[in-house]
Hints:
alpha/beta
Amino acid sequence: MPATVVVGTQWGDEGKGKLTDLLAKEMQMVVRYQGGHNAGHTIVVDGEKYALRLLPSGVLYPHTTAVIGNGVVVDPAVLLDEIDRLTARGIDCSRLRISGNAHLIMPYHQEIDALTERRLGPNKLGTTKSGIGPAYADKASRVGLRVQDLTDPKIFREKLEVVLKEKNQILAKIFNRLPLSIDALCKKYLDDYAPRIAPMIVDSVSLIHEALERGENILLEGAQATFLDLDHGTYPFVTSSNPVAGGACTGAGVGPRDIGRVVGIAKPYITRVGAGPFPTEIHDELADDLIERGGEYGTNTGRRRRVGWFDAVMMRQAVRLNSLSELALAKLDMLDPLDSVKVCVAYEVDGVRHKYMPHHQSDLHKAVPIYEELKGWNASLTDVTEPHQLPAACIEYLKFLAAEIGIPISYVGTGPGRDQFVHTA
């Protein structure tokens, strides 16, 4: 059976974890295909909050095999801490599997990440300083260490010796830092981490394809979102990998014909963290209210998110980039008290109207949003469980969005709980 991809369609924090958790009920395998622990997913189950950073959302279901794919960068300390925290809360992580081809985040990645951000000053990118970017840079430079290297101490040390010569030079001569000890790193990674991680290491490509051949349901889960994509996002204010649906192919080792459904996730407003263009950003009391009611603070960092109105221009671009089959709209209940809601339907740049995002970054920075204003519903969606229970104004709003972006809206979120989604299609 073809796989399903879940992809964020804005600048992240759309609710991918909750949607993945919802869809995982029908899945035998959930695969995380890119990113690292800089992406947090919050899921609420029976009133209990679970903040996942690195583990696939399907880990919360006992029937699901959770897989960290080859496209992910893994910090072993974070991985094991997350496993221990979930285990202490009664979650069985024994079905977790990790691709041997996934790359390792090393302490020098994190140190260089943090020091580089500090050196950039006002031009900083707003990274989480988790070492994600430097780890992917080493992967592209072909000097990265992989998860499978943990099982071969000789190879691990040989590779580390080569790369550490360069990294220690960078730390000492550019940042005036003390060099890292190869003996200390080998002890930590080979003696402390390797014995626990080794039993989880697999040939993930074979594992996934054998499941596909058995006709099992597989969910491919991305981190971050479309407009944080290294190639298609608002560069340079992006992540270091490809969250778009196409990234699932390289990050999990499947071909395009193995994917049968691509579900986008969005909020009825937009948030982003850190710097970068944001045409529909708002700064008034409504922004403060949405941030507080929506809990718009980073799962990992606690940073306050910027907020703006729903942007159909971005969403049309996301539909193109991901071949979206449908859209899930999370946190629709955040609009409950509003008398009216706005939707950006186009940009104006130097007097020219744009239906899709302009390709030149200078045009995007000066884009002026053109809005349509719709009637709000002034009613609580909290107890809504069926489409016909949605207020008339809410139904009209959803119809308007679907017509603007050209794909159906199949789920709407009505609250933070695991089951507070209405299946509308």
